[in-house]
Specification:
Blueprint lengths: L2 E5 L4 H12 L3 E6 L17 E5 L5 H11 L3 E4 L6 H6 L1 H22 L4 E7 L22 H20 L2 E7 L2 E2 L8 H13 L6 E3 L5 E2 L2 E2 H11 L8 E3 L5 E2 H11 L8 E3 L17 H7 L7 H26 L1
Parallel strand pairs: 1-2, 1-4, 2-3, 4-5, 5-6, 6-11, 7-10, 8-13
Antiparallel strand pairs: 9-12
Helix pairs in contact: 1-7, 2-4, 4-5, 6-8, 6-10, 8-10
This protein binds NADP nicotinamide-adenine-dinucleotide phosphate and ligand F7E.
Length: 328
């Protein structure tokens, strides 16, 4: 039985990837950091089938210990400080976790078992101030946040360990991908949660930042399939994973409000508070290499993604409201 170790298993992608690996018959192990309150909500449904190990990307010793215990065939490094605004307020911490964390894990793998296959979660944020459209594997990077800068380091350290030590290290340059499990502070989920609250009478307004930013948004469930396929290839390679379609935040807002029969203009307030010191204005990816070599393509379209997320938040918050009324 193949053993996989997933860092970031409690996050959006980690939870979908763990489900995929279980369905494929893997023994799934997850690295989890210590928290004062439980944060296992996303993996609640599979808790009895995964093995969790305490550890932190900030602590190289804990990574080596977990590798020694699990002896994985594949390691998926999904852990990161992944929220761009937090990287402006905590740039050094973000660099330590998101950039050096990848190096700590690669170094532990090199020393323990260089036969382990390694996946690095790289990001379209590395393209930042874009040099060409659409962005592909060969497009130069120009990150616009400490998060983007840290991800460039993570990307190149994975490439470097492949080229220096022959590690089977792949970097997936994933464009934005969302789901009902997306963190509430990211714009898509903030919108769908806000729409559901307004529809249910729990809120009246939704405060957002730059509505003009454009992103290539896909569904996280589709993207973890591409991640897994990268590690099943004969050769380690890097891949862009994207839908090839870009939409503005404004379009996402319009579609989400329209889905529940509301006019967004009556509810959305633009606040400078949510603007960033430097913005990534426009991203759209070209996943031709992944289509050709991984035989991968996204299945969920933009409109379906918006509807899926709004419906999930309506069900979640509607259920809570009924529960509150029942208790009252
Ligand atoms: P996410 O929901 O924010 O999850 C991040 C995970 O990393 C969580 O499990 C978190 O644990 C863990 N983590 C954070 N700091 C850690 C540390 N010091 N040691 C160990 N674990 C730590 O992120 P996601 O959306 O699933 O994204 C997964 C990865 O892909 C991230 O590396 C992200 O930067 C990258 N990425 C995401 C996208 C996207 O659109 N979603 C696109 C490109 C790349 P806690 O639960 O304890 O916080
Ligand atoms: O912002 C604008 C904001 O925070 C998207 C991470 O997963 O994807 C994600 O990074 C856009 C930006 O994602 C609000 O200015 C407007 O232009 O949802 P986001 P992100 O920064 O693109 C990449 C690929 C990653 O790798 C990251 O880990 O939306 N925006 N108003 C807003 N953004 C937020 N968060 N909140 C607002 O109110």
């Amino acid at each position: 039985m193949k053993r996989a170790l997933v860092t970031g298993i409690t996050g959006q992608d980690g939870s979908y990837l763990a489900e995929l690996l279980l369905a494929k018959g893997y023994a799934v192990h997850g690295l989890v950091r210590r928290t004062s309150t439980p944060n296992l909500e996303r993996i609640q449904g599979i808790l009895s089938r995964v093995t969790l190990h305490p550890g932190d990307l900030l602590d190289g010793g804990s990574l080596a210990a977990v590798l020694g215990k699990v002896r994985p065939h594949e390691v998926y490094n999904l852990a990161a400080q992944s929220f761009v605004p937090a990287s402006f307020s905590q740039p050094l911490f973000t660099g330590d976790v998101t950039a050096l964390g990848a190096a700590r894990l690669l170094e532990a793998i090199r020393q323990r078992d260089p036969g382990i296959r390694f996946y690095q979660a790289s990001s379209s944020e590395m393209f930042g101030k874009i040099r060409e459209t659409p962005q592909r594997e060969t497009t130069p990077f120009h990150p616009r946040s400490p998060y983007g800068v840290a991800k460039v380091y993570g990307h190149w350290i994975a490439v470097n360990y492949r080229e220096s030590y022959g590690l089977f290290a792949c970097s997936g340059i994933l464009f934005n991908h969302e789901s009902p499990r997306r963190g509430l502070e990211f714009v898509t989920r903030k919108i769908t949660d806000g729409v559901a609250r307004i529809r249910l009478g729990l809120a009246r307004t939704l405060e957002l930042g730059n509505l003009d930013a454009q992103r290539d948004w896909g569904f996280a469930g589709d993207y973890v399939e591409a991640i897994w396929r990268m590690l099943q290839q004969k050769e380690p390679r890097d891949f862009v994973i994207a839908t090839g379609q870009s939409h503005s935040v404004r379009e996402f807002v319009e579609k989400a409000f329209a889905h529940v029969g509301l006019d967004w203009r009556k509810h959305v307030v633009v606040s400078k508070r949510f603007f960033r010191p430097a913005e990534v204005d426009y991203l759209v990816g070209d996943a031709a290499k992944a289509r050709r070599l991984l035989k991968w393509k996204p299945r969920v379209e933009f409109e379906d993604l918006v509807r899926m997320m709004v419906d999930a938040d309506l069900a979640r918050l509607g259920g809570k409201r009924i529960e509150r009324a029942r208790r009252a």
